[in-house]
Amino acid sequence: MRILRSVRPLLFLLVMLPIAAASYGQIGIRVTFAPPPLPVYDQPECPGDGYIWTPGYWGWDADFDDYYWIPGTWVEAPEVGYLWTPPYWGWADNAFVFYDGYWGPQVGFYGGISYGFGYFGEGYVGGRWDNGHFFYNRAVTNVNVTIVHNVYENRVQNTVVNRVSYNGGNGGINARPTREQETIAHERHMGPVAAQTQHMRAAQENRDLRASVNRGKPAIAATPKPADFSGRGVVHARQAGGEYKPHPASARGGNEAGRPANEPARNEGNNRPENTNARPESNQRTGNPVHARDLPAPERPTPPNTGDSKRDQKYAQQQEKMMAKQQQEREKLEKKQEQEHAKAEKSQANQARQQQMEQRHQQQTQQLQQRQSQQMQRMQQRQAPPSHPAASHQESHPPKH
Q1: How far apart are CA 128 and CA 29, in angstroms?
Q2: Burial class (CB in 10 A: 0-12, 13-18, 19+), 85
Q3: Within 13 Å, how many C-alpha atoms sit on residue 296's CB side?
Q4: How far apart are CA 148 and CA 143, in angstroms?
Q5: What letters, b where the CB count within 10 A reaches 16 and e where it falls short, cover 230-245?
Q6: Nearest to 221 by CA among 240, 207, 197, 205
Q7: Every domain of the chain and the residues it spans
Q8: How would you classify the pairing of strands 119-120 and 114-116?
């Protein structure tokens, strides 16, 4: 429910406080399918001395049953001498579980994930502390030497680039912590600072960062400073890190789909306040969809085969153009419906108005689906190979006696 989205960061901080004085580990999130590959992007320029690079990663939003991208960003170290150990996803107990990142004097185990920019699966080679100052390795870090003077250059060989974003399981990174890393994991640590929590919350509220929307290629891949998604220096992903696999329908709505392990299922007598203005879950991906976001992915039409290669090529281009236009129409309607939901929540619309809005959205969605289906059918009919039976030509002229 949407009301939980506003309190989750507070609960997150309450959980982090006791953990900061102990060892770090998984925080209870369990998801039945893997996060998307890490997108390909460039590192924004370091804003100044004392900032440490924290790489981007995929978070999980249980309200939408969807992964969302938390952009990489530069963060001021909470203490002199502290380094960042990135979070990671790992396979355990037949599910993907999330292990949070932390600050400490040494970089610990982060799943063997190659996040780039100095985090190549083990340790950190993007910079080091020396006599109370942080020095940046120019070979792997984007720094402007006119602003940052504490620099050195140590080239690191990292020829193998793996965009896999999780450890273990089917297709995951095969890495295990060393004894030294296990020791580091049990030392005293500090959890994400307030700027990082704000950064995560801003990413979670940004629809375009959901994996189902950006398909593994987020528009905001990295930022110079936390939660600054529109300022100068924001970096866009150059490409997705691999094939995007949509959310499997079997994972939606179940307890294992991605709810923290200690959180009860929704509407199961958990005595939490209900938000009557919250958008209802739409599990109608087969049947009558309520919202544009619930529409099933369009089926790619059969390639034209008229026997004329030039004509077939022309028809194929027309198909691609129509599919692109229909996708834009879907995204436009989805955005409009999301805005209306946000407006209704802000104005605290009553149940009757909420119901009217949902009925209107369902009508809009079904009309769009029907119209696009008819458009594709008409195109398929126009592109069907012509039929010229020989008999019809012979019988058009009666035989002479």
Answers
A1: 32
A2: buried
A3: 12
A4: 7
A5: eeeebbebeebbbeee
A6: 240
A7: 2-251, 286-382
A8: antiparallel
Question: Six-digit token pair at 118?
Answer: 């100095």
User: Of 27, 24, 15, 21, which is closest to residue 188 (Cα–Cα)?
Assistant: 21
User: What is the mean pLDDT, run by run of 10 residues, along the chain of 401 residues?
Assistant: 44 39 54 93 93 97 92 96 96 91 95 94 94 94 92 77 88 92 89 94 94 94 94 91 74 41 36 37 48 74 76 82 85 86 76 78 84 82 60 41 39
3-state secondary structure of 135: strand
Please provide the size of the chain in residues: 401
CB 67 within 8 A of CB 211: yes
Closest CA to 292 of 356, 368, 216: 368
- Residue 190 CA, chain-centre distance (Å), reads 26
Counting Cβ atoms within 10 Å, is residue 364 exposed (0-12), middle (13-18) or buried (19+)? middle
Rounded to whole angstroms, the Cα distance separating 303 from 82 reads 57
Nearest-angstrom CA–CA distance, 224 and 220: 11
The stretches of 265-308 forming alpha helices (DSSP H) are none
Looking at residue 172, what is its pLDDT?
92
Distance (Å, whole) CA 123 – CA 125: 7
In the numeric block, the tokens 């070979």 are attached to 139
